[in-house]
Amino acid sequence: MKAVHFGAGNIGRGFIGLLLHNAGYEVCFVDVNDALVAELQAKQQYAVRIANEQGDTYLVDHITAIDGKDMALVAEKIAEADIVTTAVGVSVLKHIAAAIAKGIELRLADCKAAALPIVACENALGGSTILKQFVYEHLSAEAKAEADLNIAFPDAAVDRIVPLQQHEDPLQVTVEPFYEWTVERSPLLASLAEIVGVHYVDDLEPYIERKLFTVNTGHCVAAYHGFLKGYATIQEAMKDPEIVAKVRGALLESGAALVQTYQFDESEHAHYIDQILERFINPYLVDEVARIGRSPIRKLSPNDRLVRPALLAYQYGIPVAELTAAMAAALHFNNADDPEAAELQASIKEHGIAYTLTKYTGLDEQHPLHKQAAAQYREQESVLQSAARGAGSL
Q1: Which CATH architecture has domain 2-202?
Q2: Is 179 exposed, middle or buried, given 0-12, 13-18 or 19+ CB atoms closer than 10 A?
């Protein structure tokens, strides 16, 4: 069996590539990083180390890699593949769509019988659906109609913490023990064998939102409050009882909204929250606050991990003091290496906190959550200024 995977980075190698390999696929990585592609071509294998006490290590072999800029070669590989997956980031999907469309055209011309699943393993709602829209922009009406009968784009939810890496071997990846790859069932794929290690469901949305509004929400709450207190890593931040309380509080708020929305079992979801908190304090992982907090504009957007669960909870009359406190903390995220953080700070300086909150969260100035977040921002600002004055007097 053959798999084509776009994105040979740490997540691609340490999560999706590993599971595909373990399920019996020969994996062909597609990437535009020439050095990385050359390394994979030369070694044709790499190691994945699990961040646990034993340091379990797995060898992923029988792999290859090709240059993503070589559209003709990428299309050939897709034409003969049994599955296509991506882990490139949602913003990059549009850039790989033309090559995928070309591969679909070759496949349809060859009359390959088996249906082809194309699964975007991205940290977003409806990643495969987004990719399909981009791909179909490059297909004729006739090709689209034929693709509808032969090519499936099942949406997926993926969850595995893969921190920044520092290894002598540039291909080695360290990942946490926990993982979850959930894929929506598709009638087109009913005849295909399900991949071992993948959880297939009929309705994906509850699982996507459970992951986004627990794992991603909790992670960024820890990052933004950790940044306020000067911590460098999530693990350091999660040793602070005040931050742990804020993260747990935010997850209880988002969790109450999820239980109401999707009728999750309350005790099972409480266990899920406990499991997530344990993952954040894994002593065998080092995850930088700057990495988890990066792109605060995206994370403050109306449908993302802070604002959407807060609004859901608000609709059910659930207080959300910690989610709005995290929004406020995100507005303090002043990382000089992050363009989005710089844009936020410039907006606050020029237009003030009320305007900036509305612009990036979509919350009207009269909305109770806007007022709450703005007040919490000012409280945090006061604490920061007092700490700065104290430091200056030493």
Answers
A1: 3-Layer(aba) Sandwich (3.40)
A2: middle
